[in-house]
Design goal:
Structural class: mainly alpha
Largest sheet: none
Number of helices: 9
Distance between the termini: 67 Å
Organism: Albidovulum sediminis
Protein name: Sigma-70 family RNA polymerase sigma factor
Strand content: under 5%
Pfam families: Sigma70_r2 (PF04542), Sigma70_r4_2 (PF08281)
Keywords: Sigma factor, Transcription, Transcription regulation
Shape: elongated
Family: Belongs to the sigma-70 factor family. ECF subfamily.
Length: 173
């Protein structure tokens, strides 16, 4: 704990986490917390230990007492919090089938989009696929591919411009 407090030593914190996390979870479960809530208590406790390591004073308490007190206080805070309301169920109208013309039109649009994507250059398609279908940020794509950020942005922009040009007729109908 002193290494974490004095030097912000991540390896020492990892050892603290590995030692105390299962014990804290067991304590929380024995005190009536569910498994997920117990894991939340452990995460919050260990985050607090990292953030407030500078407040630890070995002359006032042992490491275990300090950490268990943080966990107990976190569990008390969670038990005092009012229960979250359950989401309301959305009622859907029965008996209204989808319009066959709309289904056919949507199917045709999907085919046109698929064809337009297939005509993109492979590097443009790859970037668009990662950004929009893979939901990756530009920096995540850069880390994954090793390409410069400007190249990634250019390929996405050029690919989207080409798709926009090829699919402009869809909006007019």
């Amino acid at each position: 704990m002193l290494a974490v407090r004095d030097r912000r030593d991540r390896a020492a914190f990892a050892r603290l986490f590995d030692f105390y996390a299962p014990r804290l979870k067991a304590m929380a479960v024995r005190s009536g917390a569910g498994s997920q809530q117990a894991e939340d208590i452990v995460q919050d406790t260990m985050l607090t230990v990292w953030q407030k390591a500078g407040q630890f004073d070995p002359t006032r308490s042992q490491v275990s007492g300090w950490i268990y007190r943080i966990a107990r206080n976190r569990q008390i805070d969670l038990s005092r919090r009012p229960a979250q309301p359950l989401p309301e169920e959305i009622e859907t109208e029965e008996g209204h089938g989808e319009d066959p013309a709309q289904i056919l039109a949507l199917d045709q649009e999907v085919r046109q989009l698929r064809d337009a994507l297939g005509r993109l250059k492979p590097e443009q398609f790859g970037m668009i696929e990662r950004a929009y279908l893979g939901e990756l940020s530009h920096s995540e794509i850069r880390a994954e591919t090793g390409l410069p950020l400007g190249t990634i942005k250019s390929r996405i922009r050029l690919g989207l411009d080409r798709l926009r040009h090829e699919l402009k007729g869809l909006r007019e109908t």
